[in-house]
Amino acid sequence: ETGVTQSPTHLIKTRGQQVTLRCSSQSGHNTVSWYQQALGQGPQFIFQYYREEENGRGNFPPRFSGLQFPNYSSELNVNALELDDSALYLCASSALAGRPETQYFGPGTRLLVL
Amino acid sequence: DQQVKQNSPSLSVQEGRISILNCDYTNSMFDYFLWYKKYPAEGPTFLISISSIKDKNEDGRFTVFLNKSAKHLSLHIVPSQPGDSAVYFCAAKVGGDDKIIFGKGTRLHILP
Question: For residue A88, what are the contacts with CB-CB under 8 A and spacing of at least 6?
Answer without folding.
Answer: A36, A37, A38, A108, A109, A110, A111
